[in-house]
User: Fold Flagellar hook-length control protein from Streptomyces netropsis.
Amino acid sequence: MRSVKTALALGVAALAVTGSIMTPAAAAATPSENANGKAMTWTLLADGPSGTVQVGGGPLSNPYQGDTATTTALPVLCLRIDGRPAPAGITPGFYAGWARGEVAATGPIRGTRLTSRAVADGVCANNFGPGWRMAEFHDGRYGPGLENSGGWSYWAYGDVPAGTRFWTAINDQPANPWS
Assistant:
C-alpha cells in the first residue's frame, strides 16, 4: 500500500504532465508579470472646453492584468507635460485629474514592439519631439497646487482620435506591453 505522500506526489506529477497544474520548477521559469500577453489601453472619453480632451480607461480597460493582446497594433498615447494650468470648466479630481500639458496619439504599433518604457517613450519623442513620453495611468493631478496624483482618467489639451484604444503605461501594475 502506498503512503499518502507518495500518492499525492504521483497525482501532482500526473496533473503536471497533462498541463492542469504547474510544478514549482515550471512556475519559477514562467514570467509572473503579464504572462497573459495583454496590456492596458485607454481611449478618448470626452471632448472638453478650450481644446481639451479627457482620456481614460473606460469600462473596457484592465489596469491590473491588461485588456488587449500585445500582438494588436494600436496607437501609443503620448503626453508632454509643460505646466499648463487647467482651463475654466475643468475641475481636477482623483478620477479625472489635470495632466498639465498636451496629449497626442502615434500611428498604430504592435504592443510587442514596445519592449520597455524607454522604447515607448522613444516612440513618442520620435513622433512628436523632445519632452514627449508615453502617457501613464497616474499622470492626472488634482488638489491644491495639483500636488496629488490620481488615476483612471485625466484631462489635457490635445486631439486624439475617437473610437480608438491607445497603449498607455501604468507604473505600479504588470499591465504594460513590456511587463
